[in-house]
Design brief:
Number of strands of chain A: 9
CATH superfamily of the largest domain in chain A: Aspartate/ornithine carbamoyltransferase
CATH topology of chain B: Rossmann fold
Largest sheet of chain B: 5 strands, parallel
Number of strands of chain B: 7
Largest sheet of chain A: 5 strands, parallel
Number of helices of chain B: 4
Radius of gyration of chain B: 16 Å
Helix content of chain B: 25-40%
CATH architecture of chain B: 3-Layer(aba) Sandwich
Number of domains of chain B: 1
Oligomer: heterodimer
Structural class of chain B: alpha/beta
CATH topology of the largest domain in chain A: Rossmann fold
Strand order of the largest sheet of chain A: 7-6-5-8-9
Order of helices and strands of chain A: HEHEHEHEHEHEEHEHHEHH
Distance between the termini of chain B: 28 Å
CATH class of chain B: Alpha Beta
Shape of chain A: globular
Amino acid sequence: MTENIQLNSEGKLKHFLSIEGLNKTLLTEVLDIAESFIGMNDQQIKKVPLLRGKTIVNLFFENSTRTRTTFELAAKRLSADVLSMSIATSSTSKGESLLDTIRNLEAMFVDMFVVRHAISGAAHFIAQHTAPHISVINAGDGQHAHPTQAMLDMFTIRQVKQDFSNLRVAIIGDILHSRVARSQIQALNILGAAEVRVIAPKTLLPSHVESLGVNVSHDLTSGLKDIDVIIMLRLQKERMTSALLPSESEYFKCFGLTEAKLKIAKPDAIVMHPGPINRGVEIDSKVADGPQSVILKQVSNGIAIRMAIMAMAMQKQGAAG
Amino acid sequence: MLDINDLLNKLEAELKRVIVERGLVDPLMIGIRTGGVWVAEQLHQRLGIREDLALLDISFYRDDFSQIGVNPNVKPSQLPQDIKGRDIILIDDVFYTGRTIRAALNEIFDYGRPNQVVLAVLIERDGKQIPLCPDCVGTSIKLNAGQRIKLTGPSPLSIHLQTLDAVA
């Protein structure tokens, strides 16, 4: 997969498909621009005219609440016209029918596709085949990547911890099925986190996980030592095709984050979760709603980060038209 | 020659006159990033404005987004949440095409409907492209082709008249 499809000839963002292939400067630029969009919440009219007259289509082939609504709000706050389509697909509909959908929407003069799809590489495929003036943002593809989620997580971390260079970050749970974890690991390594540690049972880790640039632990108690940032992942039961776990209660006992386990991490550690959370499965309610949780802050930040990415991907597009 | 202190003195006197003339009450001063903020800091002090100086970054309101994209150095604007009914003094360093002021006014109005806005600039130069003009100026000048004004600051604040190499 060639990653430079994400950048135009001047090295500027054109599509946002994965964290892989982007450098620290560009990721930092995304975070900086998002910072200024946060300031917009003080405005009575929470809208800027940047994407006035542009049409953005949210193309969701897979269910989503947070991601779709924050993308929609972000587009509206940039003054774009947004169309949100939820397209239920059977596992058999691939390639050709996807392209047909794209061609039809292109004929309606759209400027950007925000794509979520159950198949890894779907957004990349659309970016390769769509009209040259159209930008594509990946809102989650299979088990591959969820780069805007990773960026809003990086933004939230930076908001609280300021700098990445001294941070030890633990990502806990179902790494195997998590596109979020893959994008987070890449982003944390590019931004220079001191350590990325994954903590999970062997059955929920991809093979050769170390090659992603992480340390591995199979024990939550010892694994949480010295950790500044705890990222809990949802147990993705819907993607599990075989029995990877004895039971949910067993999982919670070993890998669920409770107040007692949280105490092992640094006292000022923050707790994150990309949502939706399974209370009592991967995280105790007291922790999810507790003072160290920044889970709802992540949701708020999702709007600003998506605004930044959409604005950056759309820049210079209008030059031709 | 352009002397920064002369210009600031003149602009201060002009503003004092206009504040009385237009009947500005407890005005809010807003500086446009970056040069406008530097000028505004000086005037804010000289005029003894009560409220903290507000800062405006017009990057998200520019009309040339499709040509130049998002300014990666954009900083958050810092304006009071409610400016409805306020009297505003808007400060910029150089008034040239007028497009910056159009963007600034659009952004200000997204924070609320002010009672009135007075525009004060250190230097008004020729080259206006839209029907706006400042209420108070330090000076008005006409530049030769290839000349431009550059402010450096914030301290010391100084003005430079630069001549770009003529295009062959």
